[in-house]
Design brief:
The chain is α/β, with parallel strands linked by helices. The chain is built from 16 helices and 20 strands. Strands 13-16-17-10-18-19-20 form a 7-stranded mixed sheet, sandwiched between helices. Strands 9-8-11-12 form a 4-stranded antiparallel sheet, covered by helices on one side. Strands 1-4-5 form a 3-stranded parallel sheet. The N and C termini lie far apart (61 Å).
Length: 450
């Protein structure tokens, strides 16, 4: 029932007509279009076969100023930050006159600063009389911005609660069905030999601009090194350079003493690197393939999964069943398409696949993005297990709490350089935030990188 009418709002056109707008977790934007072109897409005003873009840009600017959602109407989506793309998604719904806004994991791809801005935007929208439905696993956000909260577990509504009358611990227990530990329990690291050594690495983007700039970093066996930085400071390109998805301009990347930057992505993987990618849909899974086949994406060409170019489905199914059980991937079956699984189960499938290969270095980029507290707890334990088994772990996350809880050392990246190395036991979110903004004063627990 919507706005007093009993109608099927699963039809997007009907939902839009009733003033209901959806802001998706995975943005529904066209990268090559401008901000304005994306916002008016499907609602264009056409005269004599032409779209009046100047008028549309003016309207977009007016709406953005009204709600405090500053954007450049002429900017291309491919050239703006993730936080700005989030604003464009919100403006799309407002441009269509939405009174009820549904946000699906809106902060999953945002930095801490952008999340603060998003919460301020929520409050502005509510003052304007808008209704907001917030779908999120982040209990801190629920406590900050929501009036009521409904807990769902395994597709069943557990109950609806007044936020002021509950607390994060109670909600977490209700979500998972058991007591959840927020603090990661781990013993002190015992780092050994260097697994990954990066020296003077420079990577340029498609425009020829240095996005990674003479960067130095090392990861040793038996430790977790976290990378902290505001989105867009070169961390994604760094990971892509290590894994061979992006070519370096200069410098060296060594794994166990051997240069790997000249190798193909497959050869780099075979050298001993596991990669949990930042975007599980684009780079982690083939969504239309069965989840069973996704479990062997890195090894399908090897025996016993294939011979003479022919897949051995029996062996693939056997391996898939073992990993699905070991990593608690909840799926109707091994032949279920990967896209039918929840984000948490998709992520657990990727982690199971990568850990099963027993890599010397596990790269985990945004491993808990958009996941519930139970899945986050599970993934953190697995990363720590890898460390305790003598493997090196490189963790990229925009969640400062995650970086502080899981890392043994924290490398702060700013404008493509590692500007400081931080001991997580001797720093705070505030200090990290200052470093991420480019401040590099000598403080307790901070080692300058010159």
């Amino acid at each position: 029932r919507a706005r007093g009418q009993k109608v099927d709002i699963s039809n997007p056109n009907i939902a839009n007509d009733l003033g209901i707008g959806m802001v998706h977790q995975h943005f529904m934007l066209v990268d090559t279009f401008t901000v304005t072109e994306n916002i008016i897409l499907g609602k264009e005003t056409v005269k004599n076969g032409k779209i009046n873009l100047k008028k549309a840009e003016k309207e977009v600017k007016e709406i953005s100023e009204k709600y405090g959602l500053a954007v450049d109407p002429k900017a291309k989506i491919a050239d703006i930050s993730v936080g700005m793309q989030q604003r464009v998604e919100i403006l799309k719904t407002l441009y269509r006159g939405a009174e009820i806004l549904i946000f699906d994991e809106p902060s999953a791809v945002l930095t801490p600063q952008e999340i603060t801005e998003l919460i301020a935007i929520f409050r502005t929208l509510m003052k304007e009389g808008k209704s907001i439905i917030l779908i999120t696993h982040k209990l801190k956000e629920i406590m900050e911005v929501c009036d009521r909260v409904t807990v769902i577990r395994k597709g069943v509504g557990i109950g609806t609660y007044i936020v002021k009358e509950t607390n994060p611990n109670e909600l977490a227990n209700l979500m998972v069905g058991r007591e959840v530990t927020f603090k990661t329990n781990k013993k002190d690291a015992e780092p050994k030999e260097t697994v990954l050594a990066i020296k003077d690495l420079t990577v340029k983007d498609s425009r020829g601009v240095k996005i990674v700039n003479s960067l130095n970093l090392d990861v040793r066996a038996g430790e977790i090194v976290g990378i902290a930085g505001v989105d867009g400071n070169g961390q994604s390109e760094l990971i892509e350079a290590i894994t061979g998805l992006m070519k370096k301009d200069s410098g060296s990347i060594s794994l166990n003493g051997k240069e790997i930057s000249v190798l193909s992505p497959r050869k780099i993987t075979e050298s001993g690197i596991g990669h949990i990618p930042e975007d599980r849909h684009k780079h982690g899974l083939v969504l239309d393939f069965p989840i069973g086949q996704n479990m062997v994406l890195q090894t399908y060409y090897q025996q016993p999964f294939s011979k003479n170019g022919i897949l051995n489905q029996k062996e693939i199914d056997k391996k898939a069943k073992i990993l699905i059980e070991e990593f608690d991937v909840r799926t109707p079956g091994i032949h279920t398409p990967a896209r039918a699984l929840s984000g948490g189960n998709q992520q657990k499938a990727i982690i199971g696949r990568e850990i099963d290969r027993n890599p010397d270095l596990l790269i985990a980029a945004q491993p808990t993005r958009g996941l519930d507290v139970g899945a986050i707890e599970f993934i953190h334990k697995r990363l720590i297990e890898q460390r305790d088994n003598g493997k090196g772990v490189l963790l990229l996350s925009f969640e400062l709490e995650e970086i502080l809880n899981v890392s043994d050392r924290i490398a702060v990246i700013f404008e493509g350089e590692i500007i400081a190395t931080v001991n997580p036991k001797e720093t705070s979110e505030q200090e990290l935030g200052l470093l991420m903004a480019g401040s590099n004063d000598n403080k307790v627990g901070v080692e300058k990188n010159v």
